[in-house]
């Protein structure tokens, strides 16, 4: 959805709808989940709760609420039966993989790689406590980063099915027209975003791995706030140094050195012709 250069604008726009524009599940189901998780404490915890979601994505939807001490929060709720749905889809991919094997081993391997990746990420994305842990670590890592903000997680009100997080007011970066019309210097915004990402990857080796425009917001003070910590990446020090050297090689147009680093770091086989 963020690579229109690869799939074309039309397909990218269709895929972008999966970020936050899928039909929501019913208010009754929302109410049932809330009472299953919070019981009679629901009315003590939330002073206000809007049962109409502000965003509805493929795995969960988000509601705006107000805690008892008047703090606005976003309440992320997993879709009912989403675990069963994802397991069914992964099983379907594995079946396609077996059929494709007779026609193309390359295509079969591709389907298998996708299924393996979905299987791996599903275990984390379908437990919102994992997402909360990712958000808390990223908030600690990025404390003091210029122009970049990670909201607070409210652990005392969160569970595997529900995540309560600080509410972010801002313009989503998916609204390109509103971002373009904002008064902030776009060069500075771009610089803050890139440097914050470099800090995640190269300094801490722990980074937000789903930073599509629907997960980024431009706040009133010009900070870029990030949400949705379901998918993160981890990278060891040796690889961090190698990737940094590759970037420097490209910036210096030293393509021979870029190729050497790929082989030295094991990104490609040492049998490959330099």
How would you briefly describe this protein structure?
By secondary structure, the chain is α+β, with helices and mostly antiparallel strands.
What is the terminal separation in angstroms?
34 Å
Percentage of residues in helical conformation: 40-55%
Order of helices and strands: HHHHEEEEHHHEEEHHEEEEHH
The largest sheet is: 5 strands, antiparallel
Which structural class matches the secondary elements? alpha+beta
Kindly estimate the percentage of residues that lie in beta strands according to DSSP: 15-25%
Computed over alpha carbons, the radius of gyration is 21 Å
In round numbers, the mean pLDDT is 92
Count of helical stretches = 11
* Gross geometry: globular
Q: pLDDT under 50 segments (min length 5)?
A: none
Number of strands: 11
Word description of this protein:
α5 packs antiparallel against α6 and α10 runs antiparallel to α11. The relative contact order is 0.10. The longest helix is centred in the middle third of the chain and has 21 residues. It is globular and about 65 Å long. The strands form three sheets. Strands 1, 2, 3, 4 and 6 form a five-stranded antiparallel beta sheet that branches. Strands 5-10-9-7 form a four-stranded mixed beta sheet. The protein has 274 residues and is of the alpha+beta class. Helices cover 50% and strands 15% of the residues. β2 and β3 form a beta hairpin.
